[in-house]
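FAQ: What does a ligand-bound record look like?

Like this one, built around heme C:
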Amino acid sequence: MCKTSLKMLVGLFMLVLSGAVHATDMHTQVIAATCMACHGPDGKSRSAFMPGLAGLEASVFMQAMQEFRSGAREASIMKRHAAGYTNAEFEAMAAYFAALK
Ligand code: HEC
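The answer part, i.e. the structure of the complex:
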C-alpha cells in the first residue's frame, strides 16, 4: 500500500470518528426538537400555560422526566412524551436544555 492511500485511510477513519460524535449530538437535537413544538423554540416557552425548558437545572429536569415516565407526577400530556426514552437520553436532553440560555 502506498503512503497516499494510507493517509487517505487514516483521514477516512478520523472522519468516521468525528461523524460518530456528531451523530449522538444529532440524536439529542432531534428529540429536543419534538419537545420544542410545545415548550417553545430554543426551549423558551411563549405561553404562560407551558413551562419553558431552557436553563432548567439538569437534576430538576431528570426528576420531572422520570416522574412523568413512571406516572408519579400528575401530567396531562407529559406521561406520553416521557415514555419510551432511556435515562441516558433524559441525561443528554437535560444537559442540552440546561445549556440553552
Ligand atoms: C404536546 C405538547 C408537549 C410536548 C411535545 C412536550 N411537552 Fe413537556 N410539558 C407539556 C405540558 C402541558 C407540561 C405540563 C405538565 C403536563 O400537563 O403534562 C409539560 C411539562 C414538562 C416538564 C416539567 C417542567 C416543569 O417546570 O415542571 C418538563 C421537564 C418537560 N415537559 C419536558 C419535555 C421534553 C423533554 C419533551 C420532549 C421529549 C416534552 N416536554 C414535550 C407539553 C408538552
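Follow-up question: can I read anything off the structure? Yes, for example: Residues 31, 34-35, 37-39, 50-51, 53, 61, 64-65, 75-78, 81, 93 surround heme C (CB under 6 Å).
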